[in-house]
Amino acid sequence: MNNPLPEAERLSKNLIESFLSPRALSVCGGKIEIFKTIDSTNTEAKRRLELSQHRLAAKQCRFGATQHRFAEREHRGSVMHGSVLIAEHQSAGRGRLGKSFFSPERSGIYLSLVYIPEASQVPDTSLFTPLAAVCVCRALENLGIESAIKWVNDVFVDGKKVCGILTEGCMGTNDSDLSAVIAGVGINLYEAESGFPEEIRNTAGCLPNGKSIDKNALTASLISLMIDAFSGAADYRVLMEEYKNRSFILGKTVTVISPRETYEAEAVDISGEGHLIVRDASGTQRELLSGEISLRL
Q: Per-residue pLDDT tens for 82-106?
């Protein structure tokens, strides 16, 4: 049987809410749920959003097209907007490009924030992944921990990956409008007793003095920063410039991996939209909107 966790290591929705900024509390207050174990917080958020959309569609059918605008307004005001699902353990944690995310019991923070955008969302929801990465870095910086970003969604400390981000969009009932964004963040606070799996042992890391970090305070700090960033309360242009400045790949040779090809290139810039600009062996510059890169550390 596992020993009881010290208070600072025990997740508590009441404590998390007590640490939230006023803006984050107004959005997420009463909407935080903690799971001892779950398959994936992102997967559960998607299940709940799909159920919410089915109920919305039923209302639209019942009240007719003239009520569509009111139903959509009700959707954004629903309990799903600002919902935060947090797990002590994920049995099927997910990363980008179909990869799994190692989420052992107790040793990390695994959360998903549901954000339902306004009709004219600023910043654009396509920026939520890099914005979330900056939020993680700022939350760690508040603890005196220096971190850096590997495009597009990984946060590194002391040359090791300590955080991964998976941002997913959910479409509306007519499959043309973005209904919601799920921002999933997984942070390795300290190494589990079982250690990291062999396939990530050389690249994965954890936070220095991770066991002394207050999980609830760090979780609240991250949520508060993401609400500011996603809502536009924090200037997204400043955040995107910070995203670029925190990158440790610029000026280095990376391997670009895409479904069509794999090639080496120099990472030369990151645009205000979060796109990676690379220069291939022929001297041609390419703009990567998404994908994967690897870098020999």
A: 999 999 999 988 877 678 788 888 8
CA–CA gap between residue 186 and residue 204 (Å, rounded): 12
Amino acid (1-letter code) at residue 96: R
Report d(CA 14, CA 3) in Å as an integer. Answer: 22
Nearest to 101 by CA among 15, 182, 51, 40: 40
Alpha carbons 265 and 274: distance in angstroms, whole number: 18
Tell me the whole-structure pTM to 2 decimals: 0.90
- Considering only CA atoms, give the Rg of the chain: 20
Q: What is the SS3 assignment for 68?
A: helix
DSSP assignment of 174-189 equals TSSSEEEEEEEEEEE-
Q: Are 129 and 165 in contact (CB under 8 A)?
A: yes
Contact 262, 273 (CB under 8 A): no
Report whether 86 contacts 196 (CB < 8 A). Answer: no
Question: pLDDT, tens digit, for every residue of 254-267?
Answer: 999 988 899 999 99
The continuous run of DSSP H or E covering 277 comes out as: strand 276-280
